[in-house]
Amino acid sequence: MRAVGLNRYLPITEPDSLVDLELPVPQPTGTDLLVRVQAISVNPVDVKVRAPKALVEPAPRVLGWDAAGVVEAVGDSVTLFRPGDAVYYAGDITRPGCNAQFHLVDQHIVAAMPRSLDFAHAAALPLTAITAWELLFDRFGIDPDGFHSGRSLLILGGAGGLGSMVIQLARLAGLRVIATASRPESADWCRSLGAEAVLDHGMPLRPQLESLGLAHVDYIANLVDVVAYWEVMADLIAPQGCIGLVSEPSGPVRLGGPLKEKSVSLHWEFMFTRPMFSTADRLEQHRLLTRIAALVDAGTVRGTARQVLTPINARQLREAHARIESGRTVGKIVLEGW
């Protein structure tokens, strides 16, 4: 089968940073599905895993954690799917990725893809949908059906793939959503998804927040730089508020001070936790992706694909990684077709 992978971790400008491969087709056992991959999307995690380091893989490593495709075959313990089903999923970072024509994935973290979307637009959703859902509803404990309606959420970095999904799910839960962006295109995208206001993160945030009549916010989702915004978050978060992080700090941060005085809770969100540790509740990813598909088909959640590249090959994936590294992407980058 065709695939794209690496042996060395190189700058994306190097032709060998991602290369075209021919690999054997894997065979499903147990609760695994063998999926014929039709489309994939690229996320910051792909870029972070591929980032230059002094390591050489003895066998090619295939990356990729967002896919849509058709079930080709199933393991002998599979109960949720059968060959021919159209599915979407984000996968497991501890296993080979989905940048391949055929991919093995555990049924517990897979769902039937939205009927109203094609493969390319379905592939843009899983990783960001899972991350946003888990951050808001599992980590923060917000009620998805509106019990916490009216509370405020500040999203640091609202225009990327993850921010695009956090905005939509938070609005569905009835939150007041304020996002940050710096370019007119990014700000317009955030507003189109339901952000009540967009703050310019190139300017001090407190005056902009106060202009909205808010001294503090109940929740902060930091989807960008932890260290750069640490003191700002400590200032803007409300007493007994919640801060959510998806990236590790690049340097030391102070956990005490205002955060202690306000009894602020700090939450990590890593959507690979359930599959990585085979947690007893890993089926929740199947359930939440099923609910996301229903919301998309009902027209209450929009797809977030903004760029579709074709075909899937090393050259196109290098281009997608480079765009992600630029930090200027809006929505998701998708690759379709082999």
UniProtKB/TrEMBL annotation:
Keyword annotations from UniProtKB, A to Z: Metal-binding, Oxidoreductase, Zinc
Domain Enoyl reductase (ER), residue spans: 13-335
Record-linked InterPro entries: ADH-like_N, ADH_Zn_typ-1, ER, GroES-like_sf, Lipid_raft_assoc_Zn_ADH, NAD(P)-bd_dom_sf
Pfam families recorded: ADH_N (PF08240), ADH_zinc_N_2 (PF13602)
Highest taxon above the source species: Bacteria
SUPFAM superfamilies cross-referenced by the UniProt entry: GroES-like, NAD(P)-binding Rossmann-fold domains
UniProt similarity note: Belongs to the zinc-containing alcohol dehydrogenase family. Quinone oxidoreductase subfamily.
NCBIfam families from the UniProt entry: adh_fam_1
PANTHER family per UniProt: PROTEIN AST1-RELATED
Descriptive protein name: Zinc-type alcohol dehydrogenase-like protein
